[in-house]
Amino acid sequence: MKSMHAIDIDTVEMTLDIMKYAINRISNTTPDLASPKQEKELLALVGDTITDDGIGGEKAFQIFRDVLAKAAVPVDHPRHLAFVPAAPTRAAVLFDLVTSAASIHGAYWMTGAGGIFCENRAMEWLVSLTGLPKDAFGVFTSGGTAANLSAIVTAREDWRTKNEENNAFKGLLITSHGAHSSVKSMAKVIDADLILVEDDEEDKLTAKSLQAIIKNLSEIDRKRLFAIVATGGTTNAGIIDDLQGIAKVCNEEKVWFHVDAAYGGGALAAPSVRHLFKGIEKADSITIDPHKWMFSPYDCGAVLYRDMKLAANAHSQKGAYLDIFKDQGAQGFNPADYQIQLTRRLRGMPLWFSLAMHGTKTYTKAIERGLELAQNAAKQITELSHVELVREPGLSCVLYRRLGWQPKDYVEWTYQNHQSGFALVTPTKWTTNGKSETIARFCFINPDTTEDDISAILKTMS
Asked: Residue 418, CB half-sphere, CA atoms under 13 Å: how many?
Protein backbone atom coordinates (compact mmCIF):
# COMPACT_ATOMS: atom_id res chain seq x y z
CA MET A 1 0.00 0.00 0.00
CA LYS A 2 1.39 3.38 -1.02
CA SER A 3 2.10 5.75 1.85
CA MET A 4 0.08 8.95 2.10
CA HIS A 5 3.37 10.81 2.40
CA ALA A 6 5.09 9.24 -0.57
CA ILE A 7 6.32 11.54 -3.35
CA ASP A 8 5.69 10.16 -6.83
CA ILE A 9 5.22 11.63 -10.31
CA ASP A 10 1.46 12.02 -9.78
CA THR A 11 2.07 14.02 -6.60
CA VAL A 12 4.55 16.26 -8.37
CA GLU A 13 2.14 16.93 -11.23
CA MET A 14 -0.70 17.60 -8.80
CA THR A 15 1.54 20.02 -6.89
CA LEU A 16 2.33 21.88 -10.12
CA ASP A 17 -1.39 22.09 -10.95
CA ILE A 18 -2.17 23.46 -7.50
CA MET A 19 0.63 26.02 -7.68
CA LYS A 20 -0.50 27.09 -11.16
CA TYR A 21 -4.03 27.58 -9.83
CA ALA A 22 -2.74 29.53 -6.83
CA ILE A 23 -0.60 31.82 -9.00
CA ASN A 24 -3.47 32.47 -11.42
CA ARG A 25 -5.91 33.14 -8.60
CA ILE A 26 -3.56 35.44 -6.72
CA SER A 27 -2.81 37.48 -9.85
CA ASN A 28 -6.51 37.85 -10.70
CA THR A 29 -7.81 41.06 -9.12
CA THR A 30 -11.33 40.61 -10.54
CA PRO A 31 -12.24 36.93 -10.02
CA ASP A 32 -15.66 35.69 -11.04
CA LEU A 33 -18.24 36.60 -8.41
CA ALA A 34 -19.55 33.09 -7.92
CA SER A 35 -22.74 32.18 -6.09
CA PRO A 36 -23.55 29.15 -3.91
CA LYS A 37 -25.43 26.06 -5.00
CA GLN A 38 -27.55 23.77 -2.86
CA GLU A 39 -25.73 20.81 -1.35
CA LYS A 40 -27.79 18.27 -3.27
CA GLU A 41 -26.94 20.05 -6.53
CA LEU A 42 -23.22 19.99 -5.71
CA LEU A 43 -23.40 16.33 -4.74
CA ALA A 44 -25.03 15.53 -8.09
CA LEU A 45 -22.23 17.38 -9.88
CA VAL A 46 -19.24 15.88 -8.07
CA GLY A 47 -20.47 12.55 -6.74
CA ASP A 48 -18.82 10.77 -3.82
CA THR A 49 -15.41 12.20 -3.01
CA ILE A 50 -14.60 10.25 0.16
CA THR A 51 -14.27 6.60 -0.81
CA ASP A 52 -12.46 3.49 0.40
CA ASP A 53 -9.75 3.70 -2.24
CA GLY A 54 -9.67 7.46 -2.85
CA ILE A 55 -10.39 9.25 -6.12
CA GLY A 56 -6.85 10.52 -6.68
CA GLY A 57 -5.38 13.95 -6.19
CA GLU A 58 -5.74 15.05 -9.79
CA LYS A 59 -9.47 14.31 -9.87
CA ALA A 60 -10.08 15.79 -6.40
CA PHE A 61 -8.33 19.00 -7.36
CA GLN A 62 -10.16 19.15 -10.68
CA ILE A 63 -13.48 18.86 -8.84
CA PHE A 64 -12.54 21.72 -6.55
CA ARG A 65 -11.21 23.95 -9.33
CA ASP A 66 -13.98 23.37 -11.86
CA VAL A 67 -17.02 22.97 -9.62
CA LEU A 68 -16.64 23.72 -5.93
CA ALA A 69 -14.55 26.90 -6.16
CA LYS A 70 -17.19 28.28 -8.51
CA ALA A 71 -19.83 27.75 -5.84
CA ALA A 72 -18.08 30.02 -3.32
CA VAL A 73 -17.91 33.81 -3.23
CA PRO A 74 -14.41 35.35 -3.40
CA VAL A 75 -14.25 37.90 -0.59
CA ASP A 76 -11.68 40.02 -2.42
CA HIS A 77 -13.85 40.86 -5.43
CA PRO A 78 -13.85 44.68 -5.80
CA ARG A 79 -17.67 44.73 -6.00
CA HIS A 80 -18.10 42.48 -2.96
CA LEU A 81 -19.28 45.22 -0.59
CA ALA A 82 -21.49 43.15 1.72
CA PHE A 83 -20.97 42.14 5.35
CA VAL A 84 -17.34 43.00 6.20
CA PRO A 85 -15.42 41.68 3.19
CA ALA A 86 -11.68 41.14 2.98
CA ALA A 87 -8.92 42.02 0.54
CA PRO A 88 -5.76 40.16 1.50
CA THR A 89 -2.62 41.37 -0.21
CA ARG A 90 -1.02 39.02 -2.71
CA ALA A 91 1.99 38.90 -0.41
CA ALA A 92 -0.16 37.78 2.54
CA VAL A 93 -1.92 35.10 0.51
CA LEU A 94 1.38 33.74 -0.81
CA PHE A 95 2.82 33.63 2.67
CA ASP A 96 -0.28 31.87 3.94
CA LEU A 97 0.80 29.05 1.62
CA VAL A 98 4.28 29.22 3.15
CA THR A 99 2.79 29.18 6.65
CA SER A 100 1.00 25.91 5.95
CA ALA A 101 3.94 24.38 4.09
CA ALA A 102 6.33 25.23 6.94
CA SER A 103 4.25 23.03 9.26
CA ILE A 104 5.10 24.94 12.44
CA HIS A 105 3.10 24.51 15.64
CA GLY A 106 2.54 28.02 16.94
CA ALA A 107 1.49 27.43 20.53
CA TYR A 108 4.89 27.52 22.22
CA TRP A 109 8.26 29.14 21.61
CA MET A 110 9.99 25.76 21.90
CA THR A 111 8.33 24.51 18.70
CA GLY A 112 7.56 27.73 16.87
CA ALA A 113 10.21 30.30 17.81
CA GLY A 114 10.99 31.56 14.31
CA GLY A 115 7.33 31.91 13.33
CA ILE A 116 6.29 33.41 16.66
CA PHE A 117 9.12 35.92 16.26
CA CYS A 118 7.47 37.05 12.99
CA GLU A 119 4.04 37.28 14.62
CA ASN A 120 5.45 39.35 17.45
CA ARG A 121 6.90 41.95 15.09
CA ALA A 122 3.46 42.39 13.50
CA MET A 123 1.89 42.51 16.96
CA GLU A 124 4.25 45.30 18.02
CA TRP A 125 2.89 47.39 15.14
CA LEU A 126 -0.73 46.67 16.13
CA VAL A 127 -0.05 47.65 19.74
CA SER A 128 1.69 50.86 18.63
CA LEU A 129 -1.45 51.93 16.75
CA THR A 130 -3.59 51.74 19.89
CA GLY A 131 -1.44 53.92 22.14
CA LEU A 132 -1.41 51.28 24.88
CA PRO A 133 1.60 51.47 27.24
CA LYS A 134 4.93 49.94 26.21
CA ASP A 135 4.44 46.80 28.30
CA ALA A 136 1.15 45.98 26.55
CA PHE A 137 1.12 43.17 24.03
CA GLY A 138 -1.15 40.62 22.43
CA VAL A 139 -1.58 37.39 20.52
CA PHE A 140 -3.17 36.33 17.25
CA THR A 141 -6.39 34.32 17.33
CA SER A 142 -8.77 32.78 14.81
CA GLY A 143 -10.90 35.93 14.69
CA GLY A 144 -12.92 38.46 16.65
CA THR A 145 -15.10 35.88 18.38
CA ALA A 146 -12.11 34.03 19.86
CA ALA A 147 -10.44 37.36 20.70
CA ASN A 148 -13.53 38.71 22.46
CA LEU A 149 -13.98 35.46 24.35
CA SER A 150 -10.32 35.44 25.42
CA ALA A 151 -10.58 39.03 26.67
CA ILE A 152 -13.86 38.47 28.51
CA VAL A 153 -12.55 35.33 30.22
CA THR A 154 -9.45 37.28 31.29
CA ALA A 155 -11.66 40.06 32.66
CA ARG A 156 -13.81 37.62 34.62
CA GLU A 157 -10.83 35.80 36.11
CA ASP A 158 -9.29 39.11 37.15
CA TRP A 159 -12.57 40.03 38.84
CA ARG A 160 -12.68 36.71 40.67
CA THR A 161 -9.05 36.93 41.74
CA LYS A 162 -9.51 40.37 43.27
CA ASN A 163 -12.19 39.14 45.66
CA GLU A 164 -12.90 35.50 46.52
CA GLU A 165 -16.50 36.41 47.30
CA ASN A 166 -17.03 37.07 43.60
CA ASN A 167 -16.80 33.33 42.95
CA ALA A 168 -20.25 33.05 44.49
CA PHE A 169 -21.76 35.35 41.87
CA LYS A 170 -22.63 34.98 38.22
CA GLY A 171 -20.72 37.66 36.33
CA LEU A 172 -22.41 40.62 34.66
CA LEU A 173 -21.36 42.48 31.49
CA ILE A 174 -22.62 45.72 30.00
CA THR A 175 -22.48 46.57 26.30
CA SER A 176 -24.63 48.36 23.72
CA HIS A 177 -27.35 47.16 21.36
CA GLY A 178 -24.97 47.94 18.52
CA ALA A 179 -22.26 45.60 19.82
CA HIS A 180 -21.21 42.67 17.64
CA SER A 181 -23.19 39.47 17.99
CA SER A 182 -20.08 37.66 19.24
CA VAL A 183 -20.07 39.73 22.43
CA LYS A 184 -23.60 38.59 23.19
CA SER A 185 -22.83 34.99 22.25
CA MET A 186 -19.63 34.86 24.30
CA ALA A 187 -21.51 36.07 27.37
CA LYS A 188 -23.60 32.90 26.98
CA VAL A 189 -20.48 30.78 26.55
CA ILE A 190 -19.07 31.87 29.91
CA ASP A 191 -22.53 31.91 31.51
CA ALA A 192 -22.50 35.63 32.30
CA ASP A 193 -25.51 37.92 32.32
CA LEU A 194 -25.56 40.79 29.84
CA ILE A 195 -27.19 44.23 29.95
CA LEU A 196 -27.68 45.95 26.59
CA VAL A 197 -27.70 49.72 26.78
CA GLU A 198 -29.87 51.76 24.45
CA ASP A 199 -27.66 53.83 22.17
CA ASP A 200 -27.96 57.60 22.34
CA GLU A 201 -29.30 59.83 19.58
CA GLU A 202 -25.98 59.40 17.75
CA ASP A 203 -26.43 55.61 17.87
CA LYS A 204 -23.45 54.98 20.12
CA LEU A 205 -22.76 54.00 23.71
CA THR A 206 -21.86 57.03 25.81
CA ALA A 207 -20.61 57.60 29.33
CA LYS A 208 -23.92 59.28 30.19
CA SER A 209 -26.07 56.31 29.16
CA LEU A 210 -23.66 53.92 30.85
CA GLN A 211 -23.68 55.84 34.12
CA ALA A 212 -27.48 55.84 34.13
CA ILE A 213 -27.55 52.05 33.85
CA ILE A 214 -24.92 51.53 36.56
CA LYS A 215 -26.64 53.96 38.90
CA ASN A 216 -29.82 51.89 38.76
CA LEU A 217 -28.13 48.54 39.39
CA SER A 218 -29.01 46.71 42.57
CA GLU A 219 -26.27 46.22 45.16
CA ILE A 220 -25.87 42.60 44.11
CA ASP A 221 -25.73 43.42 40.42
CA ARG A 222 -23.13 46.08 41.07
CA LYS A 223 -20.97 43.43 42.72
CA ARG A 224 -21.51 41.14 39.74
CA LEU A 225 -20.44 43.73 37.16
CA PHE A 226 -16.94 42.86 35.97
CA ALA A 227 -16.58 44.36 32.46
CA ILE A 228 -17.92 46.90 30.00
CA VAL A 229 -17.54 46.25 26.28
CA ALA A 230 -17.38 49.23 23.94
CA THR A 231 -17.18 49.09 20.16
CA GLY A 232 -14.54 50.73 18.01
CA GLY A 233 -16.45 50.66 14.74
CA THR A 234 -19.69 48.67 14.61
CA THR A 235 -19.90 46.17 11.77
CA ASN A 236 -23.29 47.44 10.66
CA ALA A 237 -22.59 51.17 10.48
CA GLY A 238 -18.96 51.83 11.49
CA ILE A 239 -19.99 53.67 14.67
CA ILE A 240 -17.36 54.31 17.34
CA ASP A 241 -18.59 54.49 20.92
CA ASP A 242 -17.61 57.26 23.34
CA LEU A 243 -14.38 55.47 24.21
CA GLN A 244 -12.89 58.28 26.26
CA GLY A 245 -16.03 58.71 28.36
CA ILE A 246 -16.50 54.97 28.83
CA ALA A 247 -12.86 54.60 29.88
CA LYS A 248 -13.44 57.17 32.61
CA VAL A 249 -16.54 55.35 33.85
CA CYS A 250 -14.66 52.03 33.93
CA ASN A 251 -11.85 53.61 35.90
CA GLU A 252 -14.26 55.12 38.42
CA GLU A 253 -16.23 51.89 38.80
CA LYS A 254 -13.09 49.73 38.78
CA VAL A 255 -14.34 47.38 36.07
CA TRP A 256 -12.59 45.95 33.02
CA PHE A 257 -12.70 48.07 29.85
CA HIS A 258 -12.74 46.02 26.64
CA VAL A 259 -12.93 47.56 23.16
CA ASP A 260 -14.14 45.41 20.30
CA ALA A 261 -12.46 47.01 17.27
CA ALA A 262 -12.49 43.86 15.14
CA TYR A 263 -13.65 45.75 12.05
CA GLY A 264 -12.79 49.35 12.88
CA GLY A 265 -9.35 48.67 14.34
CA GLY A 266 -7.77 48.95 10.90
CA ALA A 267 -8.68 52.63 10.87
CA LEU A 268 -6.26 53.21 13.74
CA ALA A 269 -3.61 53.33 11.00
CA ALA A 270 -5.47 56.12 9.16
CA PRO A 271 -4.48 59.64 10.33
CA SER A 272 -7.72 61.13 8.99
CA VAL A 273 -9.87 59.27 11.55
CA ARG A 274 -7.43 58.26 14.31
CA HIS A 275 -8.81 60.99 16.60
CA LEU A 276 -12.19 59.23 16.64
CA PHE A 277 -10.64 56.44 18.72
CA LYS A 278 -9.46 58.69 21.55
CA GLY A 279 -9.73 56.70 24.77
CA ILE A 280 -8.86 53.32 23.27
CA GLU A 281 -5.41 53.66 24.85
CA LYS A 282 -7.14 53.34 28.25
CA ALA A 283 -8.56 49.88 27.43
CA ASP A 284 -7.65 46.77 29.39
CA SER A 285 -8.07 44.69 26.24
CA ILE A 286 -8.75 45.30 22.55
CA THR A 287 -9.90 43.08 19.69
CA ILE A 288 -8.66 43.75 16.14
CA ASP A 289 -9.18 41.52 13.09
CA PRO A 290 -6.34 41.82 10.56
CA HIS A 291 -8.37 39.62 8.19
CA LYS A 292 -10.87 42.46 7.89
CA TRP A 293 -9.25 45.82 7.25
CA MET A 294 -5.58 44.92 7.49
CA PHE A 295 -5.45 42.83 4.33
CA SER A 296 -4.69 39.42 5.83
CA PRO A 297 -6.29 36.17 4.66
CA TYR A 298 -8.83 34.36 6.82
CA ASP A 299 -8.47 33.56 9.62
CA CYS A 300 -6.55 36.15 11.58
CA GLY A 301 -7.80 38.00 14.64
CA ALA A 302 -5.89 39.54 17.51
CA VAL A 303 -6.46 40.28 21.18
CA LEU A 304 -4.31 42.93 22.88
CA TYR A 305 -3.88 43.30 26.63
CA ARG A 306 -2.72 46.15 28.83
CA ASP A 307 -1.38 43.60 31.33
CA MET A 308 -0.30 40.29 29.80
CA LYS A 309 0.14 38.68 33.22
CA LEU A 310 -3.62 38.83 33.77
CA ALA A 311 -4.19 37.00 30.48
CA ALA A 312 -1.64 34.34 31.42
CA ASN A 313 -3.35 33.84 34.77
CA ALA A 314 -6.60 33.15 32.94
CA HIS A 315 -5.40 31.05 30.01
CA SER A 316 -2.08 29.33 30.69
CA GLN A 317 -2.69 25.58 30.59
CA LYS A 318 -1.02 23.03 32.84
CA GLY A 319 -0.33 19.41 32.00
CA ALA A 320 2.30 16.74 32.46
CA TYR A 321 3.28 16.69 28.80
CA LEU A 322 3.20 20.50 28.57
CA ASP A 323 5.72 21.16 31.33
CA ILE A 324 8.66 20.97 28.92
CA PHE A 325 7.35 24.05 27.11
CA LYS A 326 7.79 26.05 30.30
CA ASP A 327 11.23 24.62 31.03
CA GLN A 328 14.22 26.89 31.54
CA GLY A 329 15.68 25.88 28.18
CA ALA A 330 12.51 26.70 26.27
CA GLN A 331 11.95 30.20 27.53
CA GLY A 332 10.25 32.54 25.13
CA PHE A 333 6.85 33.93 24.22
CA ASN A 334 4.15 31.26 24.33
CA PRO A 335 0.97 32.42 22.49
CA ALA A 336 -1.08 29.58 24.00
CA ASP A 337 -0.75 31.23 27.41
CA TYR A 338 -2.77 34.30 26.48
CA GLN A 339 -5.93 33.13 24.70
CA ILE A 340 -8.38 30.24 24.63
CA GLN A 341 -6.65 28.02 22.08
CA LEU A 342 -3.77 25.65 22.76
CA THR A 343 -3.22 24.23 19.27
CA ARG A 344 -2.82 27.10 16.84
CA ARG A 345 -1.36 27.84 13.44
CA LEU A 346 0.80 30.94 12.96
CA ARG A 347 -2.01 33.22 11.84
CA GLY A 348 0.04 36.37 12.19
CA MET A 349 2.81 35.31 9.79
CA PRO A 350 1.05 36.38 6.56
CA LEU A 351 0.42 39.82 8.11
CA TRP A 352 4.08 40.06 9.11
CA PHE A 353 5.28 39.18 5.61
CA SER A 354 2.92 41.64 3.96
CA LEU A 355 3.95 44.42 6.34
CA ALA A 356 7.62 43.60 5.85
CA MET A 357 7.23 43.62 2.07
CA HIS A 358 5.02 46.68 1.62
CA GLY A 359 5.74 48.82 4.69
CA THR A 360 3.26 50.41 7.06
CA LYS A 361 2.84 53.55 4.91
CA THR A 362 1.33 51.41 2.16
CA TYR A 363 -1.14 50.00 4.70
CA THR A 364 -2.12 53.50 5.78
CA LYS A 365 -2.69 54.51 2.16
CA ALA A 366 -4.86 51.45 1.47
CA ILE A 367 -6.98 52.01 4.59
CA GLU A 368 -7.43 55.69 3.75
CA ARG A 369 -8.64 54.54 0.33
CA GLY A 370 -11.53 52.67 1.97
CA LEU A 371 -12.51 55.81 3.85
CA GLU A 372 -12.27 57.83 0.65
CA LEU A 373 -14.54 55.39 -1.21
CA ALA A 374 -17.16 55.68 1.53
CA GLN A 375 -17.17 59.46 1.22
CA ASN A 376 -17.42 59.19 -2.57
CA ALA A 377 -20.37 56.79 -2.27
CA ALA A 378 -22.13 59.21 0.06
CA LYS A 379 -21.55 62.04 -2.41
CA GLN A 380 -22.90 60.02 -5.32
CA ILE A 381 -25.97 59.01 -3.31
CA THR A 382 -26.82 62.62 -2.41
CA GLU A 383 -26.63 63.56 -6.08
CA LEU A 384 -29.13 60.89 -7.19
CA SER A 385 -32.90 61.19 -6.98
CA HIS A 386 -33.81 57.53 -6.40
CA VAL A 387 -31.62 56.92 -3.31
CA GLU A 388 -30.80 58.80 -0.12
CA LEU A 389 -28.36 58.53 2.77
CA VAL A 390 -29.67 57.11 6.03
CA ARG A 391 -26.77 58.63 7.98
CA GLU A 392 -23.33 60.02 7.28
CA PRO A 393 -20.71 57.32 6.59
CA GLY A 394 -19.23 55.58 9.62
CA LEU A 395 -15.62 54.75 8.79
CA SER A 396 -16.00 52.76 5.54
CA CYS A 397 -19.67 51.81 6.02
CA VAL A 398 -22.42 53.63 4.10
CA LEU A 399 -26.11 53.12 4.87
CA TYR A 400 -28.64 54.26 2.29
CA ARG A 401 -32.18 53.56 1.13
CA ARG A 402 -33.84 53.16 -2.23
CA LEU A 403 -36.88 55.42 -2.12
CA GLY A 404 -40.14 53.51 -2.45
CA TRP A 405 -38.67 50.05 -1.92
CA GLN A 406 -40.02 47.38 0.40
CA PRO A 407 -37.85 44.68 2.04
CA LYS A 408 -38.57 42.18 -0.76
CA ASP A 409 -37.28 44.65 -3.33
CA TYR A 410 -33.87 44.80 -1.62
CA VAL A 411 -33.69 41.01 -1.46
CA GLU A 412 -34.60 40.59 -5.14
CA TRP A 413 -32.06 43.27 -6.11
CA THR A 414 -29.34 41.55 -4.08
CA TYR A 415 -29.91 38.16 -5.68
CA GLN A 416 -30.23 39.58 -9.18
CA ASN A 417 -26.86 41.34 -8.94
CA HIS A 418 -25.20 38.38 -7.27
CA GLN A 419 -26.49 35.68 -9.59
CA SER A 420 -25.53 37.72 -12.63
CA GLY A 421 -21.97 37.86 -11.31
CA PHE A 422 -21.98 41.64 -11.14
CA ALA A 423 -21.85 42.58 -7.44
CA LEU A 424 -22.67 41.43 -3.93
CA VAL A 425 -24.34 44.15 -1.87
CA THR A 426 -26.80 43.00 0.78
CA PRO A 427 -29.52 44.76 2.78
CA THR A 428 -29.44 45.33 6.51
CA LYS A 429 -31.78 46.57 9.22
CA TRP A 430 -31.64 50.03 10.74
CA THR A 431 -33.73 51.50 13.55
CA THR A 432 -34.63 55.20 13.73
CA ASN A 433 -36.85 56.54 16.52
CA GLY A 434 -37.85 53.00 17.43
CA LYS A 435 -38.83 52.10 13.86
CA SER A 436 -36.87 49.40 12.05
CA GLU A 437 -36.51 49.39 8.28
CA THR A 438 -34.70 47.46 5.60
CA ILE A 439 -32.00 49.48 3.83
CA ALA A 440 -28.90 48.94 1.70
CA ARG A 441 -25.32 49.00 2.95
CA PHE A 442 -21.83 49.36 1.48
CA CYS A 443 -18.68 48.31 3.34
CA PHE A 444 -15.46 49.36 1.61
CA ILE A 445 -12.34 47.35 2.39
CA ASN A 446 -10.80 46.63 -1.01
CA PRO A 447 -8.61 49.46 -2.36
CA ASP A 448 -9.20 48.04 -5.88
CA THR A 449 -12.86 49.08 -5.74
CA THR A 450 -13.44 52.12 -7.96
CA GLU A 451 -15.78 55.08 -8.03
CA ASP A 452 -17.17 53.64 -11.27
CA ASP A 453 -18.03 50.41 -9.43
CA ILE A 454 -20.08 52.44 -6.95
CA SER A 455 -21.84 54.33 -9.72
CA ALA A 456 -22.68 51.13 -11.60
CA ILE A 457 -24.12 49.47 -8.49
CA LEU A 458 -26.29 52.47 -7.65
CA LYS A 459 -27.52 52.51 -11.25
CA THR A 460 -28.90 48.98 -10.82
CA MET A 461 -31.32 50.46 -8.25
CA SER A 462 -32.85 52.98 -10.65
From this structure: 23
389 φ/ψ sector (left φ>0, alpha ψ -120 to 50, else beta): beta
- Measured CA to CA, the distance from residue 11 to residue 447 in angstroms comes to 37
Q: Which residues of 139-167 are buried (b: 16+ CB within 10 A; e: fewer)?
A: bbbbbbbbbbbbbbbbbbbbbbeeeeebe
Quote the CA–CA distance of 266 and 295 in Å, as a whole number.
9
CB 77 within 8 A of CB 28: no
Spatial separation of the C-alpha atoms in residues 346 and 115, rounded to whole Å: 7
Buried b (16+ CB within 10 A) or exposed e, 368-392: bbbbbbbebbbebbeebeebebbbe
pLDDT of residue 327: 66
Side chain identity at 333, as an amino acid letter? F
- DSSP SS3 for 176: strand
List Cβ<8 Å contacts ≥24 apart for 17-24: 17/58, 17/61, 18/61, 21/61, 21/65, 22/97
84 touches 443 (CB < 8 A) = yes
CB 77 within 8 A of CB 66: no
In the chain (462 residues long), the average pLDDT of successive 10-residue segments reads 68 89 92 94 98 94 96 96 97 96 95 96 98 97 98 98 93 96 96 93 92 97 97 98 98 98 98 98 98 97 98 92 71 94 96 98 98 98 98 98 98 97 97 93 98 98 97
Nearest-Å Rg of the Cα atoms of the chain is 24
- CA-CA-CA-CA torsion sign (119, 146, 36, 438): negative
Can you state the angle between helices 144-162 and 308-315, rounded to 10 degrees? 90
Nearest one of 275, 340, 277 to 303, comparing CA atoms: 340
Determine the Cα–Cα distance for residues 251 and 159; give it in Å rounded to an integer.
14
